[in-house]
């Protein structure tokens, strides 16, 4: 299910270093808020735990790439490795 079709095509770059993590965290958080859904909603829609969504949005922990991609897809974001 795609939540926010207005941001389709927005790219989340996966890069070395904390800048990439910070950019992904901000992009996912901003897209979720723009979509008007909670972290729990995003977790349910993307098939990951709410704790994992918090980790993605804060750039903490070690969420799997599959979890990041699942959350991004729900929000209409695309993940690209650079």
Automatic annotation (TrEMBL):
Annotated GO MF terms: DNA binding
Residues of the HTH cro/C1-type domain: 28-82
Superkingdom to which the source organism belongs: Bacteria
InterPro entries hit by this protein: Cro/C1-type_HTH, Lambda_DNA-bd_dom_sf
Pfam families hit by this protein: HTH_3 (PF01381)
UniProt-recorded name of the protein: Transcriptional regulator, y4mF family
Native species: Arthrobacter subterraneus
Source taxonomy: Bacteria, Bacillati, Actinomycetota, Actinomycetes, Micrococcales
């Amino acid at each position: 299910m795609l939540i926010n079709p207005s941001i389709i095509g927005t790219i989340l770059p996966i890069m070395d270093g904390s800048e990439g993590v910070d950019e992904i965290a901000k992009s996912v958080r901003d897209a979720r808020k723009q979509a008007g859904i909670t972290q729990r909603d995003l977790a349910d829609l993307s098939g990951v735990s709410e704790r994992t969504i918090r980790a993605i949005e804060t750039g903490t922990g070690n969420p799997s790439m599959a979890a990041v991609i699942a959350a991004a897809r729900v929000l209409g974001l695309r993940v690209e490795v650079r």
